[in-house]
Amino acid sequence: MAFLFETVLPSLLTGALVTITVTIASLALALALGFGLALLRQFLGFRVLSILIDIYTEYFRNIPALTHLFIIYFGLAAVGLRLSSLTAAIIGLGLVGAAITCEIFRSGFIAVKIGQTEAARAVGMTPMQTIWLILAPQAIRISLPPLGNYALQLMKDTSIVSAIAAPEIMFNARSMVTSSFQTTLIYTTAAMIYLLISLPMVHAISRLEARFGRRN
Amino acid sequence: MDDQPILSVRGLHKSYGELEVLKGIEFEVKPGEKIALIGPSGSGKSTCLRCINFLETPTLGEIRLDGDLVGIKKHRGASRNMSNKDLAPQRAQMGMVFQGFNLWPHLTVRENVAIAARKVQGLSREEAHALAEDALAKVHMSNKADAWPEQLSGGQQQRVGIARALAQRPKLMLFDEPTSALDPELVNEVLNVIQELAAEGRTMLLVTHEISFARNVADRVMFLHSGIIEEQGPARDLIDNPQRDFTKNFLRQVSQ
Fold it and tell me: Of B137, B186, B134, nearest to B158 (Cα)?
């Protein structure tokens, strides 16, 4: 019992803070970059740029996240750019996430019916006004359920950043196991802590969907 | 000056690849005039209407609104189509009512009607809302200002669509089969509103399948058939005594 409260929990909760930090920061990066890319891809009509964005999304979606993390953490270090494991984790998961959210937002924009754009044009809105006032709010609402799934998946996938020594939950768990061999206790506690993070997330996401997702 | 047309359409052609939908449409609309476009499906009525505010880009021809060339920029003798950005102020002068309503589902009824007044015409929030109130009153929807579009029946949605077009304070209103997507029992509430607007002396161009409504409300009817105006004339004359065989057949079929 003492081992659980004095060693395991403090270490795993410190790890949980890192997990949460990485989740929030990489989610923010993924949403901002992904939304920007989706806008450029969907509305700029500039062929070269569209192809570049497609290459970006295919590259980051079709290679394991772990590979990207290793390239960013070890690969960049080898050419002289040393990032902290935390920074590398956030950038790596953020870049992968941007490829995913870009596709989610694009599907959202595509799902908005053409009549919405026509009505906006007919009242005299400029293309920019049409995007910001009419299309984006609807596309974002349509995107909420898949974005919620992605955010949850991202939180769980932060466990892979233990591979580049970011001191999150699983990294700390494994290092305690190697010294104490309390495998069951430590990993079960880790599992419970993940649940403590993910269940409120699930709740928050469904509330967000109920609030904004309905009117489409 | 009153005889100066609000809208003039000259040599309007529209093709989609090989398919020629409009083959040289010519007409004028004078201030306060109400014109109905009728004709069989595929005759080009809707395309014609959508070419006027450039939701479809004409292949050839000239649209003039109050004397100004719509959708085409002339520069050193060469003319080219305007971008959607340049078209925006011209489109703002023409209200359009769609067959499928096309209300914006993420905005309340009031916001649907007020947003263009705010963002396009640049009115203050208060002015825009006052304008929206007036427009909603005209379509008898004042009591639904805070509702969401999804909470309304089709007829109510279409009346909001009409209010949205009214709030543009347009020089001309374009109606694209405004009752075709409605359940039969909801058609009349929309037709009544259009009739009230017509009685106010608004200038309107109406694509419709409601022949008796066209006969009662329009000053003039144009009968379109495979991309040309087959026949046109004062509404009652044309509908009661069509001259061309095709028009006769069509009117006989729809009146059965």
Answer: B186
Helix (H), strand (E) at residue B80: strand B78-81
Is A216 near chain B, with CB under 8 Å?
A: yes
Residue type at B173 in one-letter notation: M
**CA distance linking residue B176 with residue B37, whole number of Å:** 10
Residue A153 counted as domain residue: yes
Of B84, B85, B92, the CB nearest to A123: B92
Which one of A118, A121, A123, A134 would you mutate to disrupt binding with B, by most B Cβ within 10 Å of its Cβ?
A: A123
User: pLDDT tens for residues B78-122?
Assistant: 889 999 999 999 999 999 999 999 999 999 999 999 999 999 999
* ipTM field: 0.94
The total of structural domains in chain B comes to 1
Specify the CATH number for the domain of residue A34.
1.10.3720.10
Give pTM, 2 decimals: 0.91
CATH assignment of the domain containing B138: 3.40.50.300
Cβ B88–A126 below 8 Å, yes or no? Answer: yes
- Give the count of domains, chain A: 1
- Name the residue range of residue B247's domain: 33-54+84-255
